[in-house]
Write a structure and sequence with these properties.
single chain; mainly alpha; two-stranded antiparallel sheet; 67% helix
Length: 130
């Protein structure tokens, strides 16, 4: 398989859309969890574990989008679906609205975190006991 056919097949199987959607949603999830953990004085190991799980899930999501097709009759293996079959998919406009909405939600969480961190009074440095 040459590279041109490979990238055409990636596009036909919606692997690009899955990758972009997963990356945006994962970024939003990590931002939200980091804000919540900083609010509750959470442990950084929990955030690191979440990042590892999200990274492993990214590979799994790409594999599933490559190996399976969503047809009107349900999920089927790609080998069992003819290459010329018309499969339901999101329009470009719906996909763009979803990505923009998710990005705006993530940006609002980031702004909330910045505003909250500026409104906190600075803690005084610890004093040494004689």
């Amino acid at each position: 398989m040459d590279t041109k056919t490979f990238f055409r097949e990636l596009r036909r199987r919606n692997v690009y859309k899955v990758a972009v959607t997963y990356a945006v949603v994962a970024w939003l999830l990590i931002e939200a969890v980091s804000i919540l953990l900083s609010t509750f004085e959470g442990r950084t190991q929990l955030l690191t574990a979440l990042m590892v799980i999200v990274a492993l899930g990214f590979g799994l999501a790409l594999f599933i989008s490559w190996a399976f097709e969503a047809t009107p009759q349900g999920i089927k293996r790609t080998a069992n679906v003819p290459a010329d079959a018309v499969l339901p998919s999101w329009s470009r406009r719906k996909f763009a609205v979803f990505i923009i909405t998710t990005a705006l939600l993530a940006a609002s969480l980031q702004v909330f975190d910045l505003v909250r961190s500026r409104s906190k009074p600075a803690s005084s440095p610890p004093t040494a006991m004689p």
